[in-house]
Design a protein that fits this description.
9 helices, Endonuclease III, domain 1, mainly alpha, 186 residues, single chain
């Protein structure tokens, strides 16, 4: 079941609780991203979100982009102790050692691949289309594909990419369409 936004249009229930969520839902969530840079940003943000509300990450996204050189993996991969210390002191982002280290480690892992390979690799885990979920309860937190993606990413040197994070990534980047059946974005 969807919830109407302030404009009366039906959206996924989670999307109607704030203007930030409405904009994200309507303009970004579930739209296909098929480039290494865009996917690296989403992997990083989904990792930072782990254990937190997505609205926290969404509202801090401009600060994250500034702190992480607009998520340019070529720049982030070169971050050293001085950069790490700067990030740990930045109140505009989530200051978590493991998550900051993950963003740096994952940039290096991405750069170990050929250009475009990261995108093809991630999209290889996209499941076949399935029926539209009718309620939020019909939307899984993990799937066999997200478990496989997590294992494969870890095997390739990525960290902080568990099955739940991978499934959220799949949803956010259009690998799966979990907009509810009667949502305007379906």
């Amino acid at each position: 079941m969807t919830a109407p936004g302030p404009d009366g249009l039906p959206r996924c229930v989670w999307a109607s609780s704030s203007p930030d969520y409405i904009a994200y839902h309507d303009n970004e969530w579930g739209k296909p991203i098929r480039d290494d840079h865009g996917l690296y940003e989403r992997v990083s943000l989904e990792s930072f979100q782990s254990g937190l509300s997505w609205i926290t990450i969404l509202r801090k996204r401009p600060a994250f982009r500034q702190a992480f050189a607009d998520f340019d993996p070529r720049v982030v991969a070169k971050y050293g102790q001085k950069d790490f210390d700067r990030l740990m002191a930045d109140a505009g982002i989530v200051r978590n050692r493991a998550k900051i280290n993950a963003a740096i480690t994952n940039a290096k892992a991405l750069l170990a691949m050929k250009p475009g390979e990261f995108t093809e690799f991630l999209w290889s885990f996209a499941p076949e289309e399935r029926p539209a979920p009718k309620t939020s309860e019909d939307v899984p937190a993990i799937t066999p594909e997200s478990i496989a993606m997590s294992k494969a990413l870890k095997k390739n040197g990525f960290v902080f990419v568990g099955p739940t994070t991978c499934y959220a990534l799949m949803q956010a980047t259009g690998m799966v369409n979990d907009h509810l059946a009667d949502c305007i974005s379906r």
